[in-house]
């Protein structure tokens, strides 16, 4: 008998695992990321009011490996920024056409020094 030992017990069968076939590369398409930021209100307040006078803010939107951001803008006395001067900002990027592989879209408020 195949797989039998001389003492009558059988040899355990080895589990053979077939390697998985690699997935084909996804179909890619070109997309356009557009940003129209109008204004930001109730921007963060710092403990030292002198710090906010020198601070500027921008809005950045990123998806996949692409991003667009408004120019840095100084807030007014009511802690709001007017981003309308930037207009519509755009960039193009490549991403999969498979709807199960949709990349995340991240909107970030950036804080820095300077700006107009």
Beta-sheet strand percentage? 35-45%
Main sheet summary: 3 strands, antiparallel
Helix coverage percent of residues? under 10%
Q: Tally the helices.
A: 1
Strand order of the largest sheet: 4-3-7
Structural class: mainly beta
Mean model confidence by pLDDT: 83
Rg, please? 28 Å
Give the SSE order as H and E letters: EEHEEEEE
Globally, the shape reads elongated
Which stretches are poorly predicted, pLDDT < 50 over at least 5 residues? none
- The first-to-last residue Cα distance is 88 Å
Number of strands: 7
What does this protein look like?
By secondary structure, the chain is mainly beta. Helix content is 5%, strand content 36%. It contains one helix and seven strands. The strands form three sheets. Strands 4-3-7 form a three-stranded antiparallel beta sheet. It has a two-stranded antiparallel sheet with strand order 1-6. It has a two-stranded antiparallel sheet with strand order 2-5. Strand 3 and strand 4 (66-69) form a beta hairpin. The radius of gyration is 28 Å and the shape is elongated. The model has no long low-confidence stretch (mean pLDDT 83).
Essential attributes:
116 residues; 7 strands; 3-stranded antiparallel beta sheet; single chain; 5% helix; mainly beta; two-stranded antiparallel sheet
